[in-house]
TrEMBL record:
Keyword match Transferase: yes
Superkingdom, taxonomy of origin: Bacteria
Protein's name in the database: Triphosphoribosyl-dephospho-CoA synthase
Protein keywords: Glycosyltransferase, Transferase
Classification lineage: Bacteria, Pseudomonadati, Pseudomonadota, Gammaproteobacteria, Pseudomonadales
EC number, as in UniProt: 2.4.2.52
Broad class of enzyme this protein falls into: transferase
Organism the protein comes from: Pseudomonas imrae
Length: 285
């Protein structure tokens, strides 16, 4: 055996690494409209890039434990769903302890947690559609121990009848499968550059998502501005074109004026990057 043979990471460690990488890549991606990025804190007075990084790293143990639970329990059923719920809530505590009470990644723990578990359940079956289907089947199970707080998402669901993070997962992440990933691949095929392709994927998600962060902060007017503005950037040629960049700057200004931060879309971009990483890795993990 070669003395310098590289060790493959255990599956759970590998998946936790990729989930954290996806969160850091999402946070670093710039210029994102009204979100925390390398330029600043967007529409968030209580967030900054360092906090997003620290928060992402604090979630590594939770993602690893979610993968381990999926490997140990091995099937999509209530014991795994409830283990994920418990680990997810512990992850939220770790996040809040790191950020001193600021919600940096609540939606991301939910989406990426389900996807990490879905990937760990069957390391051979790695297509986006297979992963999101397993994640959806997990999300459809009812965690009997989940608290029912009147979250911002629950409040706008009551007020506007909007579908939020829970429903997006239960439907198999249509925003990722039908908008984010196809746009990511399309912009890559057009050689727009990786950062522009990722921005375009975020914008594609923003064209149609019922983002409860935006609805809570800026109502239907804010959501409409996000949908229209993101579509206008893509129609103008996307982030790689001069006309698209001008539209992106206008969208940034408009969302900032409305205090409308698309946090749900940002979480789903991270989900998109995680799935893309898994799909594109050769052979076993
Ligand atoms: C389902 C969750 C997201 C709660 O959703 P709810 O809408 O009630 O909460 P909240 O207003 O805090 O929003 C959560 C976040 O989701 C993101 N989000 C907003 N809109 C959307 C959307 N349409 N699609 C996807 N994500 C969205 C945003 O980042 C937002 O901050 C989740 O926190 C939860 O129930 N956790 C319990 C622990 C658990 O079961 N964990 C399992 C880990 S796999
Ligand atoms: N780069 C990012 N910048 C800002 N938010 C992000 C980013 N990436 C993900 N998010 C998501 O956005 C959410 C933060 O949104 P928001 O601040 O509206 O939530 P909140 O704390 O529930 O509400 P509020 O700040 O209005 O009281 C987080 O749950 C996080 O998952």
């Amino acid at each position: 055996m070669h003395a310098f043979k590289l060790h493959r990471l255990p599956l759970a460690d590998q998946l936790a690494d990729w989930a954290v990488d996806a969160l850091i890549d999402e946070a670093d991606l710039s210029p994102k409209p009204a979100l925390v990025d390398r330029r600043g804190n967007g529409a968030h007075s209580d967030l900054h890039l360092g906090l997003m990084h620290a928060s992402a790293l604090s979630l590594w143990p939770a993602f690893k434990q979610m993968a381990e639970a999926a490997i140990d329990l091995g099937e999509i059923a209530l014991p795994l769903r409830e283990a994920l719920g418990r680990i997810g809530r512990e992850g939220e505590h770790a996040m809040l302890a790191t950020t001193q009470g600021v919600n940096t990644h609540r939606g991301a723990i939910w989406a990426l947690g389900l996807l990490v578990a879905a990937a760990a359940l069957d390391a051979q079956s790695r297509s986006a559609s297979a992963l999101t289907l397993r994640a959806a089947r997990l999300a459809l199970l009812n965690d009997r121990h989940a608290p029912q707080p009147l979250s911002h998402g629950a409040q706008v669901a009551q007020r506007y009848g909007a579908r939020g993070a829970r429903e997006e997962a239960q439907l198999g992440f249509p925003a990722v499968l039908q908008y984010g990933l196809p746009q990511l691949k399309k912009s890559r095929r057009q050689h727009h550059g990786e950062q522009n392709a990722r921005l375009d994927a975020l914008l594609a998600i923003m064209t149609q998502l019922a983002d409860t962060c935006v609805l809570y902060r800026a109502g239907p007017e804010g959501l409409h501005a996000m949908h229209q503005g993101a579509q206008a950037v893509l129609d103008a040629g996307g982030s790689a074109s001069l006309a698209g960049r001008r539209r992106l700057n206008e969208l940034d200004q408009q969302l900032l004026a409305l205090n409308a931060s698309p946090g749900g879309a940002a979480d789903l971009l991270a989900a998109c990057l995680f799935i893309d990483r898994i799909e594109s890795c050769d052979g076993a993990f």
